[in-house]
Design goal:
9 strands, 4 helices, Reg_factor_effector_dom_sf, Testis expressed 264, ER-phagy receptor, single chain, Multidrug-efflux Transporter 1 Regulator Bmrr, Chain A
Length: 186
């Protein structure tokens, strides 16, 4: 009787573990759709502090952690230059960091100095007139892995179906809060 009880307990715990992993994957975006649209950009002029990375996009987590540890209240940003479905993982390039300011405001010199002290470079992006954006939930580290496999194909399909001229092509602009996009030419 005790062997049967032990087997039942092991089976129940295994089932509970599998349900927990499935719930975590669902929360991370496994079942979420990718919403793609074209129009005004979700952000305007931005000044960012960033570090460049070449290699698999899955290895960028440490850069997000580093930029967030400097100023946790700032939003994170990443610019992915290459489509991981078309470029070998060791050749994929991106810049990861924090948004220091948006719109017409300028970042404080102290904030710029703080990021530069930790090896970050500072750059200002002008506001594009139109972008293609993709929205995907960012709730866990698994969300990044899921996004790299689902957002690029959704953007490519949308752009090709509407015969849009989107630059950089095929490189998306990704804001880890859940929005990705590409600039559109006029």
């Amino acid at each position: 009787m005790s062997d049967l009880l032990l087997l039942g307990l092991i089976g129940g715990l295994t089932l509970l573990l599998l349900l927990t992993l499935l719930a975590f994957a669902g929360y991370s975006g496994l079942l979420a759709g990718v919403t793609v649209s074209a129009g005004s950009p979700p952000i305007r002029n931005v000044t960012v502090a960033y570090k460049f990375h070449m290699g698999p996009y899955g290895e960028t987590g440490r850069l997000f952690t580093e930029s967030c540890s400097i100023s946790p209240k700032l939003r994170s940003i990443a610019v992915y230059y290459d489509n991981p479905h078309m470029v070998p993982p060791d050749k994929c390039r991106c810049a990861v960091g924090s948004i220091l300011s948006e719109g017409e405001e300028s970042p404080s010199p102290e904030l710029i100095d703080l990021y530069q002290k930790f090896g970050f470079k500072v750059f200002s992006f002008p506001a594009p007139s139109h972008v293609v954006t993709a929205t995907f939930p960012y709730t866990t580290i698994l969300s990044i892995w899921l996004a790299t496999r689902r957002v690029h194909p959704a953007l490519d399909t949308y752009i090709k179906a509407r015969k849009l001229c989107a630059y950089p092509r095929p490189d998306p602009f990704h804001v880890p809060t859940g929005t990705a996009g590409r600039l559109l030419c006029a």
